[in-house]
């Protein structure tokens, strides 16, 4: 069985508070983009989990979310089974685009189907939430408002197709490091004004035409995690500035970074901006894509 699993971007992300268990309470709007990993999944006679990938930087052992997803399914049905999963990696790593989460989500869905485990989507979402905050969204897909720690999902209207340029610096930031560097209590005490995520939701849910909607989405992009991420890596701010100087409608870091996406109106501007970034050796990923 071969399955594609798509990357995500955050159109907005707010962190409300840090919970006692260490997780953060968030509100965010996420959507899929046309960049996908491919997983090939086969049954094995021997009861073992065998992972392979074309990306040699990835640990393909029990620490990988794909492996953890299979183990969670085995525990759920109280049965061991053998499976081989070969991963073709196209979603950039340490980018804030849910590459690992997307792979785990695809594994949960595909293994459930391949082995006739008959686990409901509702239960898969619960299992996914125990593995990682972005996994429930990756199971559902589309355009979604997520709250809680990311497990409470509300499907939104499909987005108009948006042209995107995605740029990622060579230096990545781990999600853990970014969240640890976010002093949300300190920000709240200083009177930090949280951008209302419902503003983005109302734009998406409106009956405006595609052009109006894209313009308003671009103007309302917001991600509180840019605060610690730009402090850790100021180059993120430089990338956004270059995009905006080259007729980008709006630019934002996705998730905990370090990928930045820009929304563009026409191919000429997006290609011109891409050429600028191609000359910068501090960048290791440049890709033109679109929302799904």
UniProtKB/TrEMBL annotation:
Instruction: Spell out the reaction equation it catalyses.
Output: 4-CDP-2-C-methyl-D-erythritol + ATP = 4-CDP-2-C-methyl-D-erythritol 2-phosphate + ADP + H(+)
Annotated ranges, domain GHMP kinase C-terminal: 213-272
Q: Which InterPro entries match?
A: GHMP_kinase_C_dom, GHMP_kinase_C_sf, GHMP_kinase_N_dom, IspE, Ribosomal_Su5_D2-typ_SF, Ribsml_uS5_D2-typ_fold_subgr
Q: What is its EC number?
A: 2.7.1.148
- The active site consists of 8, 134
Which residues make up the binding site for ATP? 92-102
Q: In which pathway does it act?
A: Isoprenoid biosynthesis; isopentenyl diphosphate biosynthesis via DXP pathway; isopentenyl diphosphate from 1-deoxy-D-xylulose 5-phosphate: step 3/6
NCBIfam families attached to this UniProt entry: ispE, PRK14608.1
Instruction: Sum up the protein's function in the record's words.
Output: Catalyzes the phosphorylation of the position 2 hydroxy group of 4-diphosphocytidyl-2C-methyl-D-erythritol.
Name of protein: 4-diphosphocytidyl-2-C-methyl-D-erythritol kinase
Name the species this protein comes from: Lachnoanaerobaculum umeaense
Specify the taxonomic lineage. Bacteria, Bacillati, Bacillota, Clostridia, Lachnospirales
